[in-house]
Amino acid sequence: MPTYYAVLLALVLGVGCASTPYTSSKPYTNTLGMKFVPVPGTKVAFCIWETRVKDYAAYAAAYAGVSMEWKNPEFVQLDTHPVVRMGWEDAQSFCTWLTKKELAAGKIKAGQQYRLPTDEEWSAAVGLGKEKGNTPKERHARIKGVYPWGQGWPPPQAAGNYSPGAGLVDSFEHTSPVGSFSANALGIHDLGGNVWEWCEDWHDPAAKTIRVLRGASWDVGSPGRLLSSYRVDYSPEYRDDDDGFRCVLTNASGR
Predict the structure, then answer these.
(1) Is the peptide bond before 27 cis (omega within 30 degrees of 0)?
(2) What's the domain range around 30?
């Protein structure tokens, strides 16, 4: 009998249940080596890592006109660090390119696509489940005392790449290579810390002026801002040294 996760990811990827049973220990791997696992309660598979420098470099080499700001953070980045100085539109362009690349390679099927996670999908991945509120603005910071590592403050040592203000000591002054800290129960790394991650959503859909980011970053250490339910919001073109993104894979035709 197929496992629950095998059936779920088969639905996500649009393949039969006889396919390889992708799980947190055997993720789906794409042409860039990005690994994806299913998230119960959603219809997408999450990349277990934030998008890496080497992933974005492949896109920048293939696609003319890419902003080169990603090459100039104020600290050293290696290939396996999360790419930073990403605006929402930069992340969207990467996802569009990757979808076309994998369709051409026959790796995914027509109707599937890579995109950013929605705010609600991100909440499912971090373990919050269903939150009260119809928009990210309404859901912001409403669940208290719940963090990516669990409940309680301060965080345990090695909980993630946060500011020393959180009381943690790690060897990374800025970003860390993806996967440097333990994954959550679904096999996903860095849903807390390292870099803020853009989501699909408008912070306030009625206003449509600013987008949502989740997960905190290497320079955040205060209890309120490390809550799993905490959101920040920036204009889509905003770029900084602590902003990156994570991809999901869906079989939806579009959003």
Answers:
(1) no
(2) 4-116+246-250
